[in-house]
C-alpha cells in the first residue's frame, strides 16, 4: 500500500471519528432551533416534551424512528378552534 493511500485512510478514519462525536451535538442544536415553532404548534406542555426528547441524543433518534414507523407524531398538534362563518 502506498504512503498516499495510508494517509488518506488515516485522515478518513480521523474525520469520521470526529464527526461521530459531533452528531449528538448537531441534533441538539437543531432541536433547540425549532423549540419556538414546536411549542407554538403543539402547545406549551406537549411542545416542551417533544423538544426535550428531541434534544436528547439517542432518545431523540429513537423517538424519530417510532414516529416514522407509526406514521404520525407521538405528541399531537393542538386542535385549532373552529372558524365561524357569518
Task: Give an overview of the whole structure.
This protein has 86 residues and is mainly α. The protein has a domain at 23-77. It is built from four helices and no strands. Helix 1 (3-33) runs antiparallel to helix 3, helix 2 runs antiparallel to helix 3 (44-55) and helix 3 (44-55) packs across helix 4 (57-70). The model has no long low-confidence stretch (mean pLDDT 85).
How is the topology of this model organized?
Layout: H1 3-33, H2 35-42, H3 44-55, H4 57-70
Helix pairs in contact: 1-3, 2-3, 3-4
Write the element-wise H/E pattern from the N-terminal end onward. HHHH
- How would you sum up the major sheet? none
**Global outline:** elongated
Helix content: over 70%
Helix run count: 4
Question: By helix and strand content, what is the structural category?
Answer: mainly alpha
Cα Rg: 20 Å
Mean pLDDT: 85
β-strand amount: under 5%
In total, how many beta strands?
0
Q: In whole angstroms, how far apart are the ends?
A: 80 Å
Which stretches are low in confidence, meaning pLDDT under 50 for 5 or more residues running? none
Amino acid at each position: 500500500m502506498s504512503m498516499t493511500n495510508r494517509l488518506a485512510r488515516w485522515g478518513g478514519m480521523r474525520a469520521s471519528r470526529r464527526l461521530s462525536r459531533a452528531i449528538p451535538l448537531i441534533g441538539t442544536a437543531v432541536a433547540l432551533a425549532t423549540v419556538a415553532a414546536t411549542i407554538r404548534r403543539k402547545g406549551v406542555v406537549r411542545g416542551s416534551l417533544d423538544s426535550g426528547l428531541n434534544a436528547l441524543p439517542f432518545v431523540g433518534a429513537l423517538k424519530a424512528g417510532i414516529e416514522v414507523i407509526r406514521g404520525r407524531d407521538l405528541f399531537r398538534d393542538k386542535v385549532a378552534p373552529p372558524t365561524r362563518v357569518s
